[in-house]
Design brief:
alpha+beta, two-stranded antiparallel sheet, 32% helix
Length: 77
């Protein structure tokens, strides 16, 4: 469908959302109820490496955050 052009508009719609201020990074989830979350369950800081480049460092990873989002989406749906 994408190659034939039938789904091309969907790619551009998603591109416009990604360009907006609504998206802070990836992954960024948008739910039907209006909830939007970047990196659910992840808490990160930025640290400068010895090469001068800044890199994200994960401080906390809570996989249950994704389960909570799925349950909320299913309950709303």
């Amino acid at each position: 469908a994408f190659d034939a052009g039938r789904a091309r508009h969907l790619g551009f719609e998603q591109y416009e959302v990604a360009r907006s201020d609504a998206v802070d990074g990836a992954p960024h989830l948008f739910l039907a109820d209006g909830t939007n979350v970047q990196n659910p369950g992840i808490e990160a800081t930025w640290e400068e490496g010895s090469d001068g480049f800044w890199r994200p460092t994960i401080v906390r990873d809570d996989p249950s955050a994704c389960d909570d989002l799925l349950r909320a989406a299913a309950a709303a749906g």
